[in-house]
Amino acid sequence: MSLERLQFRIxxxxxxxxxxxxxxxxxxxxxxxxxxxxxxxxxxxxxxxxVAFTPRxxxxxxxxxxxxxxxxxxxxxxxATTIAVVGLxxxxxxxxxLPDRRDSLVLxxxxxxxxxxxxxxxxxxxxxxxxxxxxxxxxxxxxxxxLLAPPHAGALDALRSLSAYWISMFAAGIxxxxxxxxxxxxxxxxxxxxxxxRVSSFLQLASFFVILGxxxxxxxxxxxxxxxxxxxxxxxxxxxxxWFLGLLQQLNGPLHPAFxxxxxxxxxxxxxxxxxxxITYALAYVHHMRRIVEQPDIAPADRSRASLRIGSxxxxxxxPKPLDRAVLLFTARTIARSRQHRFLLAxxxxxxxxxxxxxxxxxxxxxSRTPWYQLNRPLLVGSIVLLSFAVxxxxxVFALPxxxxxxxxxxxxxVHSPAAYFAAVRxxxxxxxxxxxxxxxxxxxxxxxxxxxxxxxMLLLIPVGVxxxxxxxxxxxxxxxxxxxxxxxxxxxxxxxxxxxxxxxxADVGTQFEFWSMQKPARFLVLLTVLLAAALWARRRTIDYxxxxxxxxxxxxxxxxxxxxxxxxxxxxxxxEQTYLDATDPHSGRPLRAxxxxxxxxxxxxxxxxxxxxxxxxWRDRRLYPQIGHSVDIGGRSLNIYxxxxxxxxxxxxxxxxxxxxxxxxxxxxxxxxxxxxxxDRAGYGWSDxxxxxxxxxxxxxxxxxxxHASGLxxxxxxxxxxxxxxxxxxxxxxxxxxxxxxxxxxxxxEDLPDRIPQYAPPDWLQRPMFLAAGLAGELGVIRxxxxxxxxxxxxxxxxxxxxxxxxxxxxxxxxxxxKEGPLRTDMQQVKAAGGLEDLPLVVLSAQGNPDQLAxxxxxxxxxxxxxxxxxxxxxxPKSGHLIPFEAPEAVVxxxxxxxxxxRAGAQPAAHFKIAVESRP
Amino acid sequence: xxELRHITKLYSSIPAVEDISFIVRAGEVTGYLGPNGSGxxxxxxxxxxxxxxxxxxxxxxxxxxxxxxxxxxxxxxxVPEEPQLYPHLTGSEYLEMVGQLRGLPERPLRxxxxxxxxxxxxxxxxYVPISSYSKGMRQKILLAAALLHNPEIxxLDEPFSGLDVNSALVLRQLIRDLAAHGKVVLFSSHELExxxxxxxxxxxxxxxxxxxxxxxxxxxxxxxxPRLEDIFSELAVEQDTQDVTRQMMQLIEA
Lengths: 921, 254
Hints:
By secondary structure, chain A is mainly α. Helices cover 64% and strands 5% of the residues of chain A. Chain B is an alpha/beta fold.
């Protein structure tokens, strides 16, 4: 082998290694393994995409041309992914692309020709580029080409589809790579080496964020409408993924004229970029290398800059302790000046930003339900994701050393306790991550959102930030950048991925919860209190740990070798951190009682707050919702009744489970137009006193009879009962048959329902625990806190009535009354025993608005109930749900009118059963 | 005074220094000599607390330094063998950080740093990152960092390495003056002539053991040799220098 070829091979390996030697991969110097790992990582991505996309195209039932149109979106996504991946590889390998000082000094002194260096570098770049492009398309490249080929296509068609795909992907990859190389090359030509070094790292970061930003914010325009809309043309001209989509379509056989210009743009831009890249790159070897040697690397910083002065002034004012200042300044200066650290920080930050952007996309393209200037979830998630990623990024970067041999200075100057150092590290982490994000978020939210949600979100963001900082610093015993480092320590592993997914889930669910809690001040206060408590707890834990006397600052990732002269540890594992932690856990020796004490105190305080909240709420309710109707004594306790209208028979409205009598008000008003109509609150509901436990249909009937007599309403009555109220009025009819003239059953609970659906009624033994739980939860304010908003106002109700109903439904008394009434088995047996419908005027309303299994069974049973009376009638409401008094009050009024009319007529019409289907909306 | 009592340091059960005992007195300059690998830097690192002795005890003013490390660390200044500094900081920033880590108040620290930088001819380069400093400049930064807090003890490991003639002369005088002001000064060097001029006492280490520990006059008289170089060759040099150079010439030309 000639000397030049040998030199080429050595340099090629060296350059390739330097290009792809990422911290994410650990190959221990093995180039094949390194490339294998890189390829496997990208191929895994390709496999995931192929698995995700393939099912859409198999059995799609679309014709071949329509299938190709349907695939545009996915193809554009794959091109954009290729561009992003190749772009990121180029950004990561940024410093290895142009010759640097090391190359110049080392190779300059050796008898190596410049063209050998140049060829080796180009070959290395080509290999890295090729491996990443092939790997990221390996599965999609095969599956797409064959999925999109016409069903009876020959080998030639399939080959065309395959080559079109790969040509387009390679073109897109080469385009982004040469674009980035050209940017760097032009900067190298125009600037002095010193200035170039400074600008280059900013260009690198900027490229990183541009690539991510474009990838995550590209609008979904890969449709006929999107591509042809004149308003989109300027956007399309700026988005490379669409140019190369155009190229792919043209190569596949043109389907749409919109792709022609895009394909032309792809070819032209690819040509220009590769030409500029090649020229500047070749020039770099001619001029640049010599200049590197001649010019110094680093220029003195310009100390007159106002930002630097303000920075050091702030550091002095905010950090009066010299130690805190030392750690802060050291950290800030290292991050500002070390490319490696800055880049790792940017990588994490970029990931956070990408996720935040992905959330914000719906706001940007107007597909979100809420506009950006109102409280919305995407922006809530955004700040939490950015905050967490900033903290985690800084914490991860802290563990990466800057100049290990220089760490001795921290050791010989350690004149403070380790706890003082850990406190300084915590302050530094706050100052550099959480505080700036808090300030930026505050400015952003207060300028785009109304004051209250902005303030509330900021109040929550503070404990969240504290929590993330404290958790990330727990058991961190190092000074930033001053501890040794195991190679591959930041190796991307499964755990990181799982934690990331868990974190995103938590952030997503957390912001849903936050959104919900911001609807009510009390909920918000609970959430804020819980977060504050968690933040304080995390802070206490970290401080306690840091203050342990046996805790020392850790400068070595591994204990000094001489402790293990025989090296008996298993391969790859050293005396574990866990062993140390177990031995020094401040909590391990504490008795359970001592550990539970703060929890118990916290729970008591929380309960006291809950009781106070509930009492305040009741006081407020009494003022806001004065009694409607009047209380009538029925022997030691009173029930509330409201009547109006004139005429006989009087109509008495019986509510369903959990509903106050007021929920009948629109129905009652209408009925009052033709006869006397009353609603009342069953024991415990609305403004009535609580009743006995349990409170089944028989006791309800006795209460009602006493109430009606005490109110001076002369029998007989027409009773209308909704849902559970249907059981009650039938039992009333069985107990006092002479006092009932007719019945209207409004989607009643059928007594035979448990025979058909055994799980419908909960077991009897649950009744008392549920009653007690309802009472306890109510007294502690939990029910009030959980109570949803009243929802949209149904027709027929006034806003005052509607909010009163909502308040009455969720009062503790009602919830307890509710628990006293269940389970329904007893009521159902009472109904079966009651009988007495034989010739009673009866209308049964059956709600069939939600045609599910339950509704179907209920319809059958409702038919049976209506058939129990010779004067029975079943009216089916095909458009109403179970809550007929709210959804179709006119149907109830109509049914009552029928029964009243029938009674008033006094005539006994021929006994026959009728079924009517209500056609009114 | 700083006293080493039967100090041993083992690396994987191989001794780097073995049972060494000597005293560094206040007001004296103690020169610490030995060939490469004899354990000089190991001893000095044990005196700074950077590494722990495997056996024996180090006492300062009669009290073990292990009893209160923090108090001890406030008392000494250390110039390490290699000028290992954070390259991304400027000279001024590095000194500022060291001062802050030692808890020195801001204003006097600033003045002190500027003063040191001016006297050591580094003032012009105070805003240049250390990565572009020459070896001598880095050495001066180390020296300034060791003296910022006016320490009682000075542990100087090869303090002259890389210094130009001017600075070396200043440092030589400074070491003598510091001792005259009652400081405890221990310094190791390979420049025997300098050691001879500066030190009042000599400790020679060979293969991890103390082979000489006496005042320089005493040593001369004892060994009947006029120069320190001769004494050193007699005690610590095993190789025949002429023979080694002859063999090397043969190897180069082979």
